[in-house]
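Its record is retained below.
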Amino acid sequence: TSIGWRSTLHLFYCDKSKSFIHKDKIDTELSFDRKDFALTTRDTEQAFRFFMPDQVIYVAGEIYKTLSDGVYDTLDDGARQYTCFFAEKEIRFARQRKEITHFDLCQHFTPTALHLVEFQGVLSIGYVNECKLSFRNHGVRRTTKRLSPSETPPLIGYDLKREAIVLRFDSYICNDILRNSLTSVLIREINRRYGLADGELRLMRDAKMMNESSDSRWVYTLLYDNDGNNNLQLQNIYQEFDLIIRSAYRQLLSCDCDSNGCFQCIRSYTTQYFDDTLSKDRALMFAGYLAGERRFEPSILPFTPAHPSFDLILTIQQQNNEIVVTSSQGGRYQQPVQDALNDTIFTTLTQAVYGEHRSRMKSLRIETWVDWLADSINERHVNKGRNAFNRFQFVLLEFDRVEAFHSPRKRKGGV
């Protein structure tokens, strides 16, 4: 349970610094100096990626939980742009380990006017003097469990209006390694060429253009001014893109690092959030192609063959103290587990095959809840329950193809 005093954690999306503020006996957020109470500070991009309401955070040996309420503005799409979060201090908090939370993040942009120029057939580039950049955090990424409307966390995020350079990639031939590797060398060369400090030029990666189809093959990367004061020469960068690419390629060639890129050629402060997707080899290929020096090598997803179809599928599992076999045709067979588990398993499977097999059936798939059972069926060998197993093997002669798969699920019992 959450017990303790009400605290505030500030997350200023419209300011460069993002702070968590602990407030005790202070009634209004305007009556104190943020610096005197800050527990930790994050910039905009870090705050957007790592913090949400109803989240446990660890600060200076103490544990806090952020609440849904706080001080925020509501954006056009209903997203909350927080000025500060409120939080409660956790008392008697126990957990075996710190949980790693992955958030569902999305980014899109709305240009006032955008004209893209194709570059060597694999990249398009454009410049826009005013562009709305929207960053959204939809909460914890979930793969299976669906939340009810009352459980769904509020959408949070922030909007910026910036001058920007837009790079458009074709996702069919450019994966994240190609996109990020090229972008990283561009950032390094632009910083070197125009005398910019790390962080002055920010990135919006893997973005979608507003009102573009969600299944569009295009993926965008935007380069924009971090401060928003229009003091970067983005229009010049756009016009000199060909020269920048050629210079970036030469800089890559001149670096003799034997690793997969270093801080002299491809890595930088800006790449910290996608460092694991960088490849010096892929950057050389991509930049070399754009410079007219190399052939382009597309990144094409490997072919995945269609899942083989089966005439009959049997699923076996242990429920409480019974072995249960269900059929894709709706049949159900079960027996209580006696002293010999293997005997019960293979006897129940044999009954299911006898009951479900039809003359037209030529293939059988068996889904098991434990991997050793799938291995035993595929390898046709067991150490215990051999008589029952041999009877089961005999009924399998009705099929031309039999395959067993380990398909784990949460259940009671199980071995």
